[in-house]
Amino acid sequence: MSTDDTSDPAVRVRDLRKDYGHFHAVDGISFDIERGETFALLGPNGAGKSTTVEILEGYRERTSGEVSVLGQDPRHAGLAWKARLGIVLQQTGESGNVSVREQLAHFASLYPNPRDVDEVIAAVGLEEKAKTRIKSLSGGQRRRVDVALGIVGRPELLFLDEPTTGFDPEARRQFWELIRSLSREGTTIVLTTHYLDEAAQLSDRAAVIAGGRLIEMGPVHELGPAEARIPIVRWRDASGLHEERTETPAARVAALVAAHGELPELEVIRPGLEDIYLDLVATAEAETRAQTPTQEQTRVDA
C-alpha cells in the first residue's frame, strides 16, 4: 500500500545497513532528499554509494533500516512505482541492432506520460544520430542514449550514476543544462559522480560517504568545517614557499606587495568542493585506520 504524500521527502533513509558477512558496505546512514531537489552522493570507490543507490532503486536488499522512496518501500514496490523512476546506470547496456529513435520510441511506449521522443533526442544532442543503430555509436554517444532512456518516461525521481562518463567538455555542459531544466520542472535527482565540479554545478545538497558511513552532509557550498573554506594566500620569497589562510586575502596580498614588491607565485586560492571533499575523505580514512587494530596489536591483545 502506498503512503505517498507530496509533502513528505522524495527519499527517506533511516539507519540503513547492508552487510556482507562481517563487512559493513553501508553502516547505519540516514538522510532525506526533498522533492525537486538535486542531491549528490559523493565518496571514493567502495564507499557504499552504489550499494545505497541500488537499495533505493529496489535492486538490492538491505540488511536493516528503513527506506521510503516516493512514499513506498522499494523492496515491496511494484511496476507502477518503478514507472515513476528514471535510472541511468554507470555501465551502458544499450548496444543493440535498433536505431536510437526506435529504442527510445519503444521505451516511451512503456510509460503512461512519456516525453516526446524527438525532443529527448534533441536534448541529448543526438539529432544527427537518430536513425543510427546503437551498436554503431561511439561510447560517448551510447552514454547519451542511456541518459535519454532515463528521462523519456518523465520520471518524478531520476537516478544518475556517473552520467557524463565519456562526454567531451561541450557535451558535459549541454548535459548540465538538461539537468537544470529537469530540476526546474520539479524532477528530483540523485546524482553520483566523481566529477566534483559537476556536483558543485548541479547539486542543491551533497552527502559524502566513506567506509559505508555518512561523514558530511549539507548545502554543496557549505560542506566541511568553516576553516576549510578560508582562502589561502600563497607566495614565494628568498626563504621559500609560504601559505597563509586569511579571511581578507586582498588585504594580505596588498600588504605583501607593499612590503616586498612583486613576488613570484603570488596567488589567492579559494578552496572548492574538490579540496574540501578530499580533506573530508582523508580525515575519515585516517580515523578509520586509527580505530582499526594492527595485526601486531591483535596478537598482543590475544
Give an overview in words.
The chain has 302 residues and is of the alpha/beta class. It folds into two domains: 11-222, P-loop containing nucleotide triphosphate hydrolases (Rossmann fold), CATH 3.40.50; 226-301, no CATH class. The protein is 34% helix and 25% strand. It is built from ten helices and twelve strands. The chain has helices at 49-57, 79-82, 100-108, 117-123, 139-151, 169-184, 196-202, 249-260, 273-291, 295-301; strands at residues 11-20, 23-33, 38-42, 64-69, 85-88, 157-161, 188-192, 205-210, 213-219, 232-237, 240-245, 267-269. The strands form three sheets. It has a six-stranded mixed β-sheet with strand order 5-6-7-3-8-9, sandwiched between helices. It has a three-stranded antiparallel β-sheet with strand order 2-1-4, covered by helices on one side. Strand 10 and strand 11 form a beta hairpin. The chain is globular, with a radius of gyration of 23 Å. The model is unreliable at 298-302 (pLDDT under 50).
Q: How much β-strand is present in the residues?
A: 15-25%
Largest sheet: 6 strands, mixed
Architecture (CATH level 2) name of the largest domain = 3-Layer(aba) Sandwich
End-to-end Cα distance: 52 Å
CATH class group of the largest domain: Alpha Beta
Total count of helical runs of at least 4 residues = 10
Overall residue-averaged pLDDT value: 88
Number of domains: 2
* SS-derived structural category: alpha/beta
- Shape type: globular
Low-confidence stretches: 298-302
Which value, in Å, is the CA radius of gyration?
23 Å
CATH topology of the largest domain: Rossmann fold
The helix content, as a percent range, equals 25-40%
Q: Major sheet: order of its strands?
A: 5-6-7-3-8-9
Can you write the helix and strand succession as a string? EEEHEHEHHHEHEHEEEEHEHH
**CATH homologous superfamily classification of the largest domain:** P-loop containing nucleotide triphosphate hydrolases
Extended strand count = 12
